[in-house]
Task: structure prediction
Amino acid sequence: MTAIVPEESAAAFLRELRLFHLNYKFGLDEILTKINILREEMTFRDGANPIEHVNSRIKTIDSLRDKAARIGCPLELDAIAEQIRDIAGVRIVCSFVADVYRVLEMLTSQPDVTVRQVKDYIAHPKANGYRSLHAIVEIPVFLSDTTRAVPIEVQIRTVAMDFWASVEHKIYYKYAKDVPAELVEELSAAAGVAHDLDNRMAELHRTVHG
Ligand code: GTP
Ligand code: MG
Result:
């Protein structure tokens, strides 16, 4: 008999964890709708859309458990919600640096979007050359009997920054995070080239469109 209680409570916890995880999917659905509305409206109004593409992802329940274990977070919903802010993530890739800031401003000025954190790795690139604008925003999700504020990690960057980050990410994993010094240097130089390209494209755009 005694074994039944822990098993039941494990099943109950798993059910709660699944529901908790589902809320992040709902939050992502909400923010993706917002982004799509902005894209469509701007395309209609200006005939140009500053957003090149959008990707989103949710951590699986397994990788959520792994991350909790890795950072020493107790496997409790409140602690997970507090300590793991990147369960749901969306990446918005824009044509120009100015668009990156514009898109963040358009999203965060909406009354139901609360900004929890902004990290500007464009103004302050990481030592390896990584550039991107990061934000954690909270979005309300309306459930059958309650409302949940769901945090979403938003990364906004240009095509050039995205290209660099995707190559760097592959190299980082290939070398199991122990990247040879020459490659680190080469990546840093490539980040400079990507930055130059962003500046030149912006200049070209200004020349053509004023
Ligand atoms: P800290 O590392 O403590 O600053 O916080 P964090 O990891 O929670 O947030 P950060 O803003 O540094 O990074 C969040 C996400 O941004 C990562 O999961 C990656 O997707 C991306 N990112 C951050 N730094 C790099 C980088 O150097 N290279 C690449 N390719 N992606 C990065
Ligand atoms: Mg990090």
In short: The CA atoms of residues 203 and 209 lie 10 Å apart. Residues 119, 126, 128, 130, 134, 155, 165, 168-169 surround guanosine-5'-triphosphate (ligand 1) (CB under 6 Å).
